[in-house]
## 1
Amino acid sequence: MSLPELYLVLLVGGTALLASIAGARFASRLGLPSLLLFLGVGVVLGEDVLGLPFDDAQLAQTVGTAALAVILVDGGLTTRWADIRRLLLPAGVLATAGVAISVLVTATGAHLLLGMDWHLALLLGAIVSSTDAAAVFAVLRALPLPRRATGLLEAESGFNDAPTIILVLVFSTATLDLPSPAAIAGNLAYQLAVGVATGLAVGWLGAVALRHIALPATGLFPLANVGFGIVAFAAAGTLNASGIIAAYLSALVLGNAKLPHRAATRSFAEGAGWLAQIGLFVMLGLLVEPSELPAAVLPAIAIGLVLLLLARPISVLACLMPFRVSWREQAFLSWAGLRGAVPIVLATFPIVAGVTGSRELLNIVFVLVVIFTLVQGPSLPAVARLLRLTRSDPLRDIAVETAPLDVIDADLLTVTIPKSSRLHRVSIFELRLPPPVAVTLIIRDGVTLVPDRHTMLREGDELLLITTPDTRDMAERRLRAIGRAGRLATWHGETGHPDQTPRPGPPRCAPTPADRHPRRDTQPPRTHPGRAHPNRGSENHPTAKTNLIGTPR
């Protein structure tokens, strides 16, 4: 490649990247997964529109598989173990038995409705049976859903890529006679077992190494974390095992280990994941030929309806019935099983293997992903409300985001107090947060205030709290409980659990003139002559205790 050609490639690539980033912002406002606009950028750049030729299915498969590994490393590094540890068993059943059920039901529909032979039908069922985490959580992130529902979707989408890839490889290479169910089960068990063992081992070794090795620059820690995930992916692949599950589990171990520079690591992993998604979807958009897509619309709609209305609900019902998951959550999980990059990447496998009719499969899968993402994505908030999974008054909860502070092994919580929250007019000392949690700053009407124990909170305040990993959950639950039921939240039976139905608390106090003059409550409290200021001298008092901000209770 000459230097002018390099400039041209970088110009096209950089323009496509910036257009995709701008499209992601536009898609988030509309409640759509960004993958649709990324695919659109690729289609526009393609040979039928702007004339950029690309039809190398082998390269698409190779680059796509590597991009999936990076995306799953990002998912593992940014997933909290506390959110999914109790959901591993149901998520594992969904990712294995659920995939098998979905493949069989979808293949039956393709055989009966489209007249496909069983080989192609099973191949199509395996290709579209995997859910996509990036597509799902781009829409769910803003919904106040029960943690079990979102945790199940996250864990399932992290685990089910591996079984689907294995099935697609088996069906793609078995061009004459399909292997027996026992042979398929044995192959699946080996690849998953070795992939899990490899991922856990590499993650543990990486965590031990990064705890004891002082790297010369902060920027090397994120590279090392992602590097261990890629090593796990490659090591498992070398052993003919599932590199996808190995990459995800190694990153999950590293992301939840107490390692330095966690904030930098998560930011870098998130950026790498976005870059992989953009490159992957643009490349897949380039791979399809728009002139061939109209013929695939009706078959894609037929298979998509079978998948959405039969295969997915049956698999969810069969797999989650033993775990006492409510029918509302099961219905939502059935509707929220969005398809994204994985099915389109998997559709390249039979093309590379030379399976007859595989090009038509790619077109059907591409159209199915686009149409049903447009149908399911924007409808998820309405479906959640219809199933009463979102609270009728979501403003009563607080919004919490986290920025880790590695130097003191603590987290900085950003807490926003919405309208109608019962945190309004509650004093700092009345929060009774677990020590050593500290309210360090209040941002009110664009003005920063340093609070004392008597400062009253107001609607619209943004609080900055310092917590430790051990007290973070208790602090969040206490704030959530007061936000729902007021100062006497515990008395009213409100625990602040994310999935607890809010209990009615006492009536909120009517606005007072002080609410319209927020600076009044920031003045030091009045003290009587000869009496110590309540914020001073507590260290000499024999019975004084230090509360969340270092002042006596």
## 2
Amino acid sequence: MKILVREIPPRSAWALEQAGIHPLLAQLYAARGVQSVQELDDGLARLIAPTEMLGLSAAATLLADAIAADKTLCIVADYDCDGATACAVGIRGLRLLGAKHVSYIVPDRVVDGYGLTSPISERVKASGADVLITVDNGIASFEGVATARALGLQVLVTDHHLPASRDGQIMLPEADVIVNPNQPGCTFASKSIAGVGVMFYVLLALRAELRQRGVFPAATQPKLDALLPLVALGTVADVVKLDANNRRLVAQGLKRVRALMLPTGLASLFVAAGRDAQVATTFDFGFALGPRINAAGRLSDMTLGIECLLTDDAARGLELAKALDGINRERREIEGSMREQALAVAESLFDDNEEAPPAICVFDPDFHEGVVGIVASRIKDKLHRPTFVFAQSRAPGREHELKGSGRSIPGFHLRDALDLVAKRHPGVLLRFGGHAMAAGCTIAVENFDAFEQGLSQVAREWLDAATLMRRLDTDGPLKPEYRRVELVDALHKEVWGQGFAPPTFSEEVEVLSQRLVGEKHLALKLKHQGQPVDGIWFGHTEPLPARVKLAFRLDADAWNGIRRVRFLVEAAQAEL
């Protein structure tokens, strides 16, 4: 691990400080590319205009016409938190805007697989729907869209994933309307918007269309800001880059959550997770609520998660939240044992004195396909290599297939790598898709070795020593006057996440004492710039030298009713 310090553009930091931003926050923002205080304005008026997103006008017209004709709308969701929140936002928003008949279908991870398939289109038609709306999927669902159109359904695809390509040509399904900022010709600046964000923008455009038609005046139009807590949850949980537009969506959602202006089921999730909504943070979304929603799609039925986000009944909400919490506990148990097994397989691929191979592919017949993505992430974190973990499909008639989930490291675009493997080894990849840092694919059992060799070859070509070196970008030393509880609280209230990393400081400290707690965490007494401070390194058991360079985040814990600053250690680098 190499601990590095981010550069702080002095002009940007000075400009932010002159505009009234706290000196520490000014440095943190400047180091993350913020140049002016206007970029920190999280007001809704600062959101990118819906008119910038290709297809929104046509989508608004389609939906407004459908509502006027009293048509039945059916949303086809994805089975992760982004898909679940997008579905809930879509249903709540469409009902607010006058749709009387709105239902949803969410695919089963095992039986249906990912996206809009032909059988799902047939189920939508059989349900009596007239309009099929995808959320967080559909951009690569060629057969599913074609089937739906052939059955007489109107199809609106809303998605944020990268479209498929063949021989260098982008391919799009023949839907009635496609809304996706990553489709050709779309100038919408926030290419990292989550699926739930895309659906929220569809609703903004629909409201504008209905307003123009005179359905309601601007003064009494339905307020869509009630949906922002769900938009914020899905955006953070999907680990999309928090660019300025996404940060505004998340900030607005957090403000409403902290004011307890949030859906009943979401409030119940905070209770089940043991978190306080009044001091909610992006950490709560990403590591407490998001995993509980995701657990339903991994091990059970995402209908549970969507129903929790839709209910306005407190008792029902708490019942569903507790059920999701129980499923998440089961997920953690399965993941724990599977992670150990998968890591053992991965580490068997190289000797102790060798570097890990450029890419890691792991499969075992006992693996559970619902947690392959989480386990891939854990192995990637430990070995710092692009990693795919595969499980055998349990879908009837598809037992010969392996379903894989991959996670990547900076500098290795996973979906593009899969595309190159598919071109070089025709027929090996049955299906694939995803993003730069996370992707999924399906292969035949007998093609596992061919896939592993193909991915490793691409990794050898694309990755160099600098990319393969584990590095941690930090914000450098922490001034002792900033080691205050109120400043820690202020930092926690800010919007941090993917692409806008939470503050991590680094400097040499003296280790006064250290001991294991809970058999797997290292509790520390440190001397930081001449003053004592507590620290803890979760999941680390190896002792530290007397003097060491630490990378750490700031936290505040309570002891005998007194809150004190402590360091959450992320990494250590012995000073030579």
## 3
Amino acid sequence: MHVIGNITIYLAFFLSIYAFVVYIFGISKQDQRFIDSGKGATMGIFILASLSMVLMFVLLGTSQFQFEYVAHYTSSDLPLIYKLAALWAGNAGSLLLWTFFLTMYSAMVTFSKKMKRNPMTPYITSILLLNIMFFYLILSFVTQPFAILENTPVEGRGLNPMLQDPGMVFHPVTLYLGYVGLAVPFAFAIASLIVKNMDAFWIQMTRRWTIIAWAFLTLGNVIGGYWAYTELGWGGYWAWDPVENASFMPWLTVTAYLHSVMIQERKNMLKIWNLSLIILSYALTLFGTFLVRSGVLTSVHAFGETNLGAYFLVFMAFMVILSMYLLMSRYQLIKKDTGQFEAYVSKESSFLINNLILLGGTFAVFWGTVFPLVSEAVRGTKVTVGVPFFNTVMSPILLSLLFLMAICPLIAWQRASFKNIKDNFLIPALISVAVAIVIVVMGVQEAYPVLGFTIITFMILTHLVEFIRGTRARRHVTKEAIPVALFRLMIRSRRRYGGYIVHLGIALIAFGIVGANFDVERMETLAVGETLTIGDYTLTYEQLGQRSDGVNESVFARLAIEKHGRDLGYIYPERIFYLNWEEPSTEVAVRSTLREDLYVVLSGWEEDRRATFQVKINPLVKWIWIGSFVLVLGAVFAIWGGRYGQVNPRYTGPERNVY
């Protein structure tokens, strides 16, 4: 098994070199035979990567402790699902997963029907092969997933208890699908620069790829937030941790890109901007991988100190320099026939401002993330940037984005007139102001919550107006029933209305985030029979017990819940002690409603059964998870069954008689 596993790695590495070389020969010699050979090698690499994955799953699932990776991250008592999920618990396994996704995407692009015989295909695949070669270099000579131990241990170390959660099964996989997926539009963009094909072909062909990558990044971040909320016991879902920031930054830049490409398609503008955004997004995925694997910053998500950081830093620098060289050398060609803005008040301008704000947010997060490294290099002391900095900087950015998202659907292209603005925004604005007044009358005095709820209301109303107007216009022509007209309206413009659904999802998420301004928290030590009052809730501590869960032991508390004198049942926070791990894990008890979450943590206990509880009331948190579902639903709706791009677009690069 050791030999077979290493063969799949080494053979795939040399096959990736071979594929890259024959593609270059095929391009330079204009020889289809080399191109076909490279395509076959690309498929061979994917098959080898799949074999590596299957083999590693078998080793993990059957507890083959002679393998270093298996012994380090699993144990015989670990449930099978977590044995398999341990594949991405460490450096070697997670890089194997990353490489598998990269080879999968490469094979899908290479053998896509839309790319069949397209002159750009060998260029695109060559860029992807550069990435594959790098990752196989790491797997072959730096961190080997199939390394064996000199002495086989009787038992494995086991999986970190914090990772024994359903979030471990889904969070890394979705995040990696998003990270790796961004290599595809990057490869298309670089290939377009190489062949000097500056039309919208690469945008048309990668729109769906980019939305898919963005949707997976979204899912990864949301699942990670939910995992942190239910597992770590600190009562929040986003801590501005360096690794959290690393996945959030490319999400921001890809969001900006998805908006600005619409301007290029419609007005032939922002070509350099879009190329720069996709290059930046790709670079940020490599930067995030560097942060996770270098150990330069402390993070609960990181893999610890390793020697991988330098490799990723060098590769990231190489790819960025190559990209910027191509971008600058084609600058005059890109600027040719570029459209111009016609008015400051227009949909184009609102999209551009939206992009600038998103990039401003990206820079703020980037600076807050790397500042400890900068301070250590300059002053010799690592100064940590905390949550207050990020919240202070990002709050106005979030509100500004929401306001622009409210305006964009109804503002006119080219030039918006005063009449257009009045007709479209007067009623939503008046209702939103009324909501603000009601909120203030109810006793909310803080500026950010009032402003936040007002803008969210305005945003939801403007989007509903767009749905209503579109449905009315269709009914006027077709005489269809309202549900039928609405459904067919959305189906005929999937991308547009899918985007609106995404916006509504973001509004719901923002609604939940603003609710954090009203959190209430108490920590108290109680004897059995004593009560704790927080907000409208009264919790009575009734029991401290212990139970066995396989080889693990759990200590739990039972608390009765009352609200306004009404019995709401029981809640059971607990701590789990593991046989193969020193630190216990926290199992948070959460009673969730649309209005608020009652969040209880068992922090500690004494021999006399006195127990210490951390209790929080987190308003509106459930709307974050609901909004995330709506957001992903909108992304799926936008790409499902829609028509994207032409199969054989006009090719304006160097003449070719092959491929």
## 4
Amino acid sequence: MMDTTSRPRHPGTAHGRRRGPALPGRTLALVTALALLLGGLLAAPAQAAPSASPSGAAQDGQRALQPVVVVMDYSSSMLEKDADESGTTRLAAAQEATSTLLDNAPDGADLGMVVYGANTVGDCKDITTLQKVGPTDVGGLKKRIAGLDAVGETPIGAALLHAAQELEGIDGEKSIILVSDGEENCSEPPACEAAQDLAGKGIGLTVHTIGFKVNDAAREELTCVAEATGGTYVQADNATELETELQTKTVRAFQGYVASGTPVTGGETLHSSPQLAPGQYLDEYERGETKAHSSADGTLRFYNLGTIEPGERAHLSALLLPDQSQPTATGDPFAGIEVQLVNGQGENCSSSDREYSHSSDGGKPIVGYVRSQEYTEPGSHGCFQDGTGQLFAKVQRFGEHQAEEPMPVELKFVVEPAVDESTLGPHADEDEAPRSVTLSGAAAAVAGGGSFNEAAEVENRTVLSDSVMPNEARYYRVHVGYGQRLNVRAANGASEGAGPDSVDVSVFSSVRGPVTMKGDRRLHRRPAGQTATLNMPVSVSMDNHDGVHGQDAYLSGDYYVVVSADKYSDDRNREPFPYELALEVTGQEQDGPLIAEPGAGRVVDPDSEQDAGEQDDAEAGEATAGATPAGEPDEGGGGAEATATGLTEPAGDNPWPWFLAGLAGSALIGAAALVLTRRRPVAAPATTQQHPASPGPGSQYPTDRYGTDQEGPR
């Protein structure tokens, strides 16, 4: 069982590492919200056998915008001609705002619409459902809205209860957006009393209110309705403001993390564990600790990672996913994940013993990451002294937060190719100087993804605006090549009324390891105008893989910038926190290191046709003689796809893309048949593979051995 004595003993968020350096956190853009997309990948079928192969498929469930019912006031006062200086009626302004909302809502958004006062004079029961909650027939709904008049009363309380009934049976968080130009005049029941009743049901319903040209009494009433359910009140004094606020409240809904990966169940003991090929997997851990830091009885799982060759390094990240729909309150215990690599004898093989991550904030990524030790020759002291190269992953959930609730764990396994050590220089002996990010110009609205798998791709030198909600995180990815350095500037927008108390900006490497950044990574809700700048300590370089400076960011690829929300009190609202990011990658991208052929003493440059394509008859015969026997799994011939794992490179003169792109038909693939028997099985029994003592002089690694492709994570 894992030792827990050195885990942090205070709630909060941390990335920790034992026996190693500590790991260090404009106006709301409406278009960002409108760019949100629904859905997820279909779940891959569960596997009964204790082995798995990567597929990139998503687990059960699809991410969707929070279900929303818009309740619109069609009382007679909406005929007032004061929506703008041109004398537009409030009704026309509301209809135009609704039409714009429908035009910009994401495909498949679960929207409903209720109106009151549109049919009968003096009737407090005049409440109509125009659109049931679900995908919207935009054209049809627009026609129905255009045919309505404003003739009736203002039964706000009854309309809220009616809208809540439209949301019955829908699990998770959901919202009502109420637009009214006056106060309740029916009181069947009173508006605030109805809202309090809904709040007391504990059904995850939030009511946001928009006062359109309202007086003080209506403003007070609509504020009471919103606050009773943890929602927000805003005022719109003209048609433009109404259109803006309606879109903001309706379309910017909570976006939770949807995990992706081939389903797998880890073993309860080391040698009963399933064997994994490089790729991405999804497990479920049943429980956390019964008492933080002392019981160490959280779910413990093992995975057989097969063997690695001299010069290779294995990377493993484990992402723990609490239920983000549950609010976090002050003093909540945290949830955490701890990972370690071990050999067949259970001895530590991790570069820094073991690593853990924990958080009490539902949106912050809880990622435990490790890489393997340097390979040592058989007979010497170290993890691989038995000569097998065998590795296992040991992963344990800890912490009291949602301890009795099962949590998904997303596993990412990458094998880093061996490089020609003679081409490497000395590692950096100090950090580079801090660098300001001076990018200027208007920010482009960019909707960050809800997970590593769906991170929004961002070009270098981009200034973007977005927002994040409590218990949520937004993910962006940007390419950082060898010789380059990522610099990030973050600024808060009009965030004084936001739900989160602050936001945290974190950076993760191409293999999902937390990256130590220089500078302040946190922005608070107030005052407005705060700016924070983060820099990579040194440029990305393979030279630093064994140094103190830059050892957590020595691989080229897609790096992740993650903005997550902190919420210290449970009485704050669900209003998004607006922010601006400026992403700048400095330095000229350089060619990466040459890939070494383990054991052969020869460097294979994949850009060289001669190196990649020369094969003699003897080598071909050797490959044939060593082909996979009938009945045994053949990684190269059976159609299992390699999952993208983050070691991404742009096409060009760099030799790494041959390993990272997985391009069919390349000369490298032509040489793959020579090593079929040495490939890692895709779905093999949980047995220990023997590490070949001396690979043949013509052998090369197949591209999919490393679980990489050109496009990066999916």
